[in-house]
Amino acid sequence: MTTTATTGIDPAALAQYVDHTLLKPEATAADVAALVAEGAQLGVYSVCVSPSFLPLDLTQAPNLRVAVVCGFPSGKHHSSIKAAEAALAVQHGADEVDMVIDVGAARSGDFAAVEADIAAVRAAVPAPGVLKVIVESAALDDAQIVGTCRAAVAAGADFVKTSTGFHPAGGATVHAVELMRATVGPTMGVKASGGIRTAADALALIEAGATRLGLSATGAVLAGLDGGAGY
């Protein structure tokens, strides 16, 4: 298992792990504009939004990266539809695409289908675009998580990601992140998302091997670190 020491991480350093996220169905364009402004103020790595909001106005935040979701939140979309959605997102300015696998295929052990689904989206998100694969870990057992992560590696993804944050089974856990990191090795990205509400949660997941965090309560998480009162 690969772990990362978090001793001494300050709010600015933690912010660089963060995809500052707004995926609520009722979100408005004004809400997304506020997300971008807040993300720039907090110094996060990226904002993560629904693809219908692209392109974003980053005039006041030129260094902020843009992530979007694909096949969200169920993953029950034909691979060609996911690929088209991803391609359109990249065309409209997305730097990163977070796709949802067909969780049912993973649960049934059809990892060839999972790999083919990921590969279709990978082809639509060529480098330097970043592809993250949402495995919905809380809905899978350990063997299914491992099989899905191996499929993501084989299909050329850049990250595996725990959760959509919308599944009733739950979100990120330390155990899932440890298992995902052990499966994909030290160089592939691992994103923890779903239910991360405190600084302690965030640091525990980084210690477990996460290299990116999907947060909606970013300000509160950063403020939970010593010296983070200004956030």
TrEMBL record:
Q: InterPro entries from the entry?
A: Aldolase_TIM, DeoC, DeoC/FbaB/LacD_aldolase, DeoC_typeI
Tell me the organism's taxonomic lineage.
Bacteria, Bacillati, Actinomycetota, Actinomycetes, Micrococcales
Question: Per its database record, what is this protein's job?
Answer: Catalyzes a reversible aldol reaction between acetaldehyde and D-glyceraldehyde 3-phosphate to generate 2-deoxy-D-ribose 5-phosphate.
Q: Which family does it belong to?
A: Belongs to the DeoC/FbaB aldolase family. DeoC type 1 subfamily.
Chief location of this protein within or outside the cell:
cytoplasm
GO terms, molecular function: deoxyribose-phosphate aldolase activity
Q: Does the keyword Cytoplasm apply?
A: yes
- UniProt-listed HAMAP family: DeoC_type1
Is this entry keyworded NAD?
no
Query: Pathway listed for it?
Result: Carbohydrate degradation; 2-deoxy-D-ribose 1-phosphate degradation; D-glyceraldehyde 3-phosphate and acetaldehyde from 2-deoxy-alpha-D-ribose 1-phosphate: step 2/2
Return the Gene3D superfamilies for the record.
Answer: Aldolase class I
> Known CDD domains for this protein?
DeoC
Question: Sorted alphabetically, which keywords does the UniProt record give?
Answer: Cytoplasm, Lyase, Schiff base
* Species this chain originates from: Cellulomonas fengjieae
Q: Where in the cell is it found?
A: Cytoplasm
Q: Which reaction does it catalyse?
A: 2-deoxy-D-ribose 5-phosphate = D-glyceraldehyde 3-phosphate + acetaldehyde
Q: What class of enzyme is it?
A: lyase
Q: Where is the active site?
A: D98, K161, K191
EC number per UniProt: 4.1.2.4
This one is known as Deoxyribose-phosphate aldolase
